[in-house]
């Protein structure tokens, strides 16, 4: 098969007020461009799984997103990350981790679950041990800094109650950037990956959509599509948003229409301001949709010699 590799990524769906200033926003968008280029470079020596792994790893290192170094703090001032990765081949391999506290590249840990264990999803202390065995474990100081601590203290002071519903907190304080990537490689294989620090001030042990197998925060199936979601996980889970896109594509719906219909379904069910999706299909078509104010997204194809990056709803994409 002689297909040109394609990759599309997102840096999270949320509110424009999440950005301190224009310089902050541009740094965030430039990080998306870097991630796409890293993913395309991986296509030269590997497959779609390598492409999404490297793209998400780049964003986890960057610190501009709610993943890896940029992960937000939970209600007790801790980092707890989730991640999932899926290969679209005939065995639909999946690897996922949840409640990860001491890893920067959580997507690499999820891939280790896929490739080095017999399991699909590992949580909590099990992820800590796996990270140590494969050299991914880092001290808390690599993930929690003074700026995060100061923001956490400020937000805690503004809580009406420690038992306030987390979804309301997420809306009040502004969603930040879960990251995700979808890719088609030269051999026609699809892969998807999603990584997040979760919603800010979430209850300790809360698991969102990003690591859940079955098509909530991600899905990849050769010949159909690969999808990555961002937003409020509780709604994405109930809608099985990524698998919903794949089901629509299987029924003959165009990829862009399928993505839009999935977002519209979530909006009808739960209201606006809670989801964004990116997707690529087996023909290399790219699509995105969201019901938030902004969603950072970028894509490119081998031979294009440019990366298309977008943020606002009316920005051209793809």
Describe this structure in words.
It is a single chain. The protein is an alpha+beta fold and 318 residues long. The protein is built from nine helices and twelve strands. An eight-stranded mixed beta sheet has the order 4-3-2-6-5-1-11-12. A four-stranded antiparallel beta sheet has the order 7-8-9-10. The two termini are 24 Å apart.
Keywords, separated by commas or semicolons:
318 residues; alpha+beta; 4-stranded antiparallel beta sheet; 9 helices; 23% strand
The percent of residues in helical segments reads 25-40%
**Pattern of helices and strands:** EHHEEHEHHHEEEEHHHEEEE
Q: Looking at the structure, what is the overall shape?
A: globular
By helix and strand content, what is the structural category?
alpha+beta
Q: Can you give the mean pLDDT? A: 93
Which parts are unreliable, with pLDDT below 50 for 5 consecutive residues or more? Answer: none
Largest sheet strand order: 4-3-2-6-5-1-11-12
Count of DSSP-assigned helices: 9
The beta-strand count equals: 12
Per DSSP, what share of the residues sits in E-state strands of 2 or more residues? 15-25%
Ends apart, CA distance between termini: 24 Å
What can be said about the biggest beta sheet? 8 strands, mixed
Rg: 18 Å
